[in-house]
């Protein structure tokens, strides 16, 4: 904190000068003239000057510190005709000017612009990966259904448990240590048990920002990573939608304007989308070979519903109301019966005052997540309810940005669990989190700095947590940039999992205990939060205009982790234990984009370990090597005929070896039980004293898809997709039943044919 104080003190004259700037500002949104959708990363500049920028993920642009005078405001973007608007600027004036781009005759790739490249020079973007719907659709689609869950798995630093798990681990953090946001609301389980699909509808995604570590103070409450998903606004000009069907699922989306979009005026629009799994039925006839129990087929079932009402004013101010219901079931008698449900409702707004240079955004919402699982040896239930509200303020300048905000979250957890020794753990707890943050970004020549600080207060712990963070980027040349970031992080929510499980299926939720917990030094903890420190460094190299190489090395020091004491054998022992851990490694990626080609390569080499006071052991998600290669090819220049291929290889996950078995007496008659004649019906497992000392075999899988789109009119089309998942039928292990000595594999080769009709 002392370092941050002196840093902010040194920067205070610069910040003050920014706040006191008296020159004019031009701001607004870039829209598609046909449908009113925001155009992301469009170039915007004043002709004949050095004033220029790009629109952000909302289509918003801001040009500040402009001297009085007459100018021409221009905007350009791939596939659109450029637009020019004459503008007169007077001193201290704030001008709102929306621009509308019309589709042009220029095809993708015939004109090269460097909006994303220029943006990378002016933003820190350490450990940040921006994902667009176009990139998601470039992957081989499983069963013809492109999904963010599939795309996240190819990103450097992200490890997936495989085809039948639906969990991701980001640079050494467990799922509960990653915050997944949907339009500002926490989603506690965003992935279905069939690990190919998320709860999010790809066609509704506007953009996704993935922060694998070292994120700034705008985000808090988690100690590992952030996945921030924003949905787009519904169609503002006409009734439209699509329906699709595959062996995996059926989907439907309908969107319509309630008041149509007109340039310079407001609009109101509505969208409803839903999907329902079919695999639990189709697999019995199509993929009977994929199930270990013929009668049940593949035991996955899920359904998702999402709806959004959007109101946009003429100056770009907007209000959105949305709600969702996500459900999932996995019923395999050889593994477990599991089901969860996530419901929520929320609203967000953006205010663009005509007389102020401050942009105000806010979110309010409620979510409810319930989970239950029944395995052979225990049953577990968990629920978490959360009410949250945030408000953010942004001030843009020519070479800087000031952003600050406030956040309040009320959380209720209910957890019920019985461990293999028959000891129950139950917790029902209410807590409230208050936080505020400030972030300042400034370009100083070739250097971009971003100091920030987040102030957290956890009411149930009566604990105040100041968290300074800092990021920087230095443009060595026009094509080479070095970057670094780091900071302190905390969270109050804990997850429960069995670190001895070969694959974890249950992630329940609790909050940090109010009762006393002994640390590794034997003393009671004063601070019972989960704590971490991040340090990230990297380099970006533009080998060509369309070829980017990114290399990052990182260290996450989990200096305090509160875990459930699953080895508790008596009620006198604590329900919780304390561990520490580290995650470190190097991530490399290369991306090449051309008119017809899209190539992506990512390799991660990392270590993830924990220390429980007795031994240092690798976590069950410590995948030492992880490699992803993806390629897509467009047979035509419009992208109507495309082939995609993806190959993944990862080293085996750790597991705790079995030493032996024993008769697990139940003592049905208490102390009077005759242990010599008791005939137990359960077998106990003697585990190795070396925790996670074994390694599963390497995992690798090849996926291929090819799609063709047939156009019937300007708006109607039929897309046909043929895909093969696990093309060479690799037998990857999923689960091993130690007692029955039975291996359950991941999904085998699975060809599929799908169709999607859009109108």
Strand content: over 45%
- Unreliable segments (pLDDT under 50, ≥5 consecutive)? 106-113, 499-503
Main sheet? 22 strands, antiparallel, barrel
Distance between the termini: 56 Å
Assigned CATH class of the largest domain: Mainly Beta
The count of β-strands is: 46
Query: In total, how many domains does the architecture comprise?
Result: 2
Please, what is the CATH homologous superfamily of the largest domain? TonB-dependent receptor, beta-barrel domain
Structural class: mainly beta
CATH domain fold name of the largest domain: Maltoporin, Chain A
Shape: globular
The helix fraction, in percent, is under 10%
Just name the CATH architecture of the largest domain.
Beta Barrel
Radius of gyration: 27 Å
Count of alpha/pi helices: 5
């Amino acid at each position: 904190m002392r370092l941050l104080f002196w840093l902010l003190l040194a920067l205070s004259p610069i910040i003050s000068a920014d706040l006191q700037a008296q020159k004019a500002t031009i701001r607004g949104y870039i829209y598609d003239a046909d449908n009113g959708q925001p155009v992301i990363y469009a170039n915007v500049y004043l002709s004949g000057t050095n004033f220029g920028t790009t629109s952000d993920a909302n289509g918003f642009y801001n040009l500040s510190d402009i001297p009085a005078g007459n100018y021409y405001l221009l905007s350009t973007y791939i596939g659109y005709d450029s637009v020019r608007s004459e503008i007169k600027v007077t001193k201290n004036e704030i001008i709102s000017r929306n621009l509308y781009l019309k589709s042009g005759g220029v095809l993708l790739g015939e004109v090269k612009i460097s909006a994303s490249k220029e943006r990378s020079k002016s933003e820190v973007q350490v450990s940040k990966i921006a994902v667009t719907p176009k990139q998601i659709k470039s992957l081989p689609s499983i069963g013809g259904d492109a999904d963010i869950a599939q795309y996240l798995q190819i990103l450097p630093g992200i490890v997936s448990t495989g085809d039948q798990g639906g969990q991701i681990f980001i640079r050494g953090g467990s799922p509960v240590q990653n915050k997944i946001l949907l339009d500002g609301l926490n989603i506690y389980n965003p992935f279905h048990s069939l690990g190919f699909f998320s709860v999010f509808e790809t066609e509704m995604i506007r953009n996704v920002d993935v922060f694998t570590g070292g994120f700034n103070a705008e985000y808090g409450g988690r100690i590992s990573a952030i996945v921030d998903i924003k949905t787009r606004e519904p169609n503002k000009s006409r009734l439209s939608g699509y329906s699709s069907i595959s062996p995996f699922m059926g989907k439907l989306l309908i969107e319509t304007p309630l008041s149509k979009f007109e340039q310079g005026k407001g609009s109101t629009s509505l969208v409803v989308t839903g999907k329902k799994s079919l695999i639990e039925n189709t697999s019995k006839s199509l993929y009977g070979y994929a199930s270990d129990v013929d009668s049940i087929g593949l035991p996955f079932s899920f359904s998702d519903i999402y709806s959004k009402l959007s109101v946009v004013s003429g100056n770009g101010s907007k209000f959105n109301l949305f709600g969702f219901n996500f459900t999932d079931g996995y019923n395999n008698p050889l593994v477990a019966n599991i089901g969860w449900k996530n419901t929520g409702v929320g609203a967000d707004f953006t205010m663009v005052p005509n007389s102020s240079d401050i942009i105000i955004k806010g979110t309010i919402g409620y979510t409810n997540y319930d989970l239950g699982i029944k395995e052979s040896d225990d049953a577990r239930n968990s629920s978490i309810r959360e009410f949250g509200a945030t408000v953010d303020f942004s001030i843009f300048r020519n070479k800087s940005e000031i952003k600050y905000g406030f956040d309040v979250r009320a959380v209720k957890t209910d957890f019920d669990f019985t461990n293999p020794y028959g000891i129950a753990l139950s917790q029902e707890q209410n807590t409230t989190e208050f936080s505020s943050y400030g972030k300042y970004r400034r370009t100083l020549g070739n250097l971009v700095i971003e100091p920030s600080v987040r102030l957290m207060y956890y009411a149930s712990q009566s604990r105040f947590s100041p968290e300074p963070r800092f990021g920087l980027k230095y443009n060595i040349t026009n094509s080479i940039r070095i970057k670094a970031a780091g900071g302190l992080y905390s969270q109050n929510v804990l997850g429960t999992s069995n670190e001895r499980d070969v694959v974890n299926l249950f992630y329940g939720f609790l909050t940090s205990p109010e009762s006393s917990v002994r640390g590794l030094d034997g003393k009671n903890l004063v601070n019972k939060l989960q704590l971490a420190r991040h340090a990230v460094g990297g380099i970006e190299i533009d080998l060509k205009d369309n070829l980017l190489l990114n290399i990052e090395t990182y260290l996450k020091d989990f200096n305090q982790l509160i875990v459930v004491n699953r080895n508790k054998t008596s009620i006198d022992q604590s329900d919780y234990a304390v561990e520490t851990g580290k995650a470190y490694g190097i991530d490399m990626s290369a991306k090449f984009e051309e008119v017809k080609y899209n190539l992506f390569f990512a390799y991660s080499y990392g270590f993830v370990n924990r220390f429980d006071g007795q031994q240092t052991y690798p976590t069950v998600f410590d995948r030492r090597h992880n490699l992803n290669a993806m390629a897509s090819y467009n047979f035509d220049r419009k992208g109507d005929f495309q082939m995609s291929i993806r190959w993944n290889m990862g080293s085996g996950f750790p597991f705790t070896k079995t030493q032996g078995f024993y008769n697990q007496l139940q003592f049905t008659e208490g102390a009077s039980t005759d242990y010599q004649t008791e005939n137990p019906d359960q077998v106990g497992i003697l585990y190795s004293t070396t925790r996670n000392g074994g390694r599963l075999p390497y995992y690798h899988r090849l996926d291929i898809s090819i799609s063709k789109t047939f156009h019937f009119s300007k708006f109607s089309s039929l897309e046909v997709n043929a895909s093969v998942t696990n093309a060479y039928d690799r037998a990857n292990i999923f689960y091993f039943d130690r007692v029955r000595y039975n291996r359950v594999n991941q999904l085998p080769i699975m060809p599929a044919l799908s169709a999607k009709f859009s109108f």
